[in-house]
């Protein structure tokens, strides 16, 4: 028997901004996430690691990403740097729960393995999931994705149907896992990890979802940022004393924008991507309700990093095609048009665009910067928990600080799972997080300092104080009680406090295996030189 152990559904969005969804102040229609929030709890100060692969590694292992071998993405920076594979010094939530009587399922994006095409010991089935449907790579077409697998078998041909849309497929397979489990293993608890690619670029959405947002964003990013801020203050997410950050210096005032229709359409497609995800989450919740499992299921929703300001151009296109993450042609053989060109209307399969810094600035209202950075715009995420049998404070906001490592600690406590010192003859690092269970019970979880590092960007959170830097810039210090939008740098007023926090961060970085950014850049430079030398040698050989 299951001894009433809870089921766990962990849902991850990809590249979604802090304030995009309705229950965090956004304009996008997300009734299903809003429902979970209204009947559960929302965190206002939950943090990810600022990038997709590191966040996924930390989320699933309870360790800091550098400890897992994925300090940046899935590139190989050995011998001095990160391996780019989920290593054997960690155990995933799936591996842990499988050892403790759970059936484990995954639907969606993996992105924790160097090899996208060859089965290896860092793929989902090899890291604890009984069943997996989804993609191994980090991004790609929503209409005809590459690296689509079921368990360890490539099934890209299944996308060759007229109505295929990857977000829907992720949702539908998650629903199937729940319904089949409840038919066959109803007395056994399950863990389901649902990892969407939405709303990560490319801007691909179904026309019926795009049309729903026609005219929704015509007021432009300046006015919409102000309107979002007001809603967030009224809702209790944001303190009215915190100033709205300035418009990004790379963004024009809305009244000066020449191609408004194209700009608006980019945001309409982005919104449609999130809308489709929310519809799928609604189907997942319905499956739990119909199977009678909703009350004793912990549902967690969050995003892997802040909004993404990355532009897409020809160079990026070539890189993605060469590495095998993108296709040069559609399912029907049409040429894909890459790049944020104003002559190309985004949304369809034959386009490949992003929504850029202008709309990312809106998505991260009211914070500074984006994915990659450890300022609030890079690491702050909406975080919704829903568990009717345990969480009694319906619709509450919680303002305590927490981060990805805390999810493993929480799952250990609520399931009674025994975390091993060794797993499959490998010594396992102890978990780094603090359980969120006291917060579920409206108590203080006594969280200590929070640490972050990504590509040299770094931060420490110590109570109301946050030390942060944008590599290779200098450290900045902020009082987050009075200035969470990080506009008043206090480092000159409090040099001793900053000094102590810097020393603490350095000690953490050394303990957790953070590779200094200068070393990584030297490795990348050496790799590029070796690649160009190899290409030159091949050309010379052909001439001979």
The figure for the number of domains is: 3
Under the CATH scheme, which class of the largest domain?
Answer: Alpha Beta
**Residues in β-strands, percent:** 15-25%
Rounded to an integer in angstroms, the radius of gyration calculated over CA atoms is 22 Å
Strand order of the largest sheet: 6-5-4-3-7-1-8-11-2-12
Q: Helix count, per DSSP?
A: 15
Shape category: globular
Provide the structure class: alpha/beta
Reported by name, the CATH topology of the largest domain is: Alkaline Phosphatase, subunit A
Assigned CATH superfamily of the largest domain: Alkaline Phosphatase, subunit A
Strand tally = 18
- Give the proportion of residues in helices: 25-40%
Report a brief summary of the structure.
With 544 residues, the protein is of the alpha/beta class. The protein contains 15 helices and 18 strands. Helix 7 packs parallel to helix 10 (356-363).
Description:
Helix content is 33%, strand content 16%. It folds into 3 domains: 7-325 and 356-444, 3-Layer(aba) Sandwich (Alkaline Phosphatase, subunit A); 448-513, Arylsulfatase, C-terminal domain; 517-544. It has helices spanning 31-38, 52-61, 65-68, 93-98, 166-184, 207-211, 221-235, 260-290, 314-323, 356-363, 376-379, 405-415, 437-440, 495-511, 517-543, and strands spanning 7-13, 41-47, 103-108, 131-135, 148-150, 153-154, 190-195, 297-303, 337-338, 351-352, 380-386, 396-403, 422-423, 426-427, 450-454, 457-462, 465-469, 475-479. β13 (422-423) and β14 (426-427) form a beta hairpin. The mean pLDDT is 95. It is built from 15 helices and 18 strands. It is globular. It is α/β, with parallel strands linked by helices and 544 residues long. The termini are far apart. The strands form 4 sheets. The chain has a 10-stranded mixed beta sheet, sandwiched between helices.
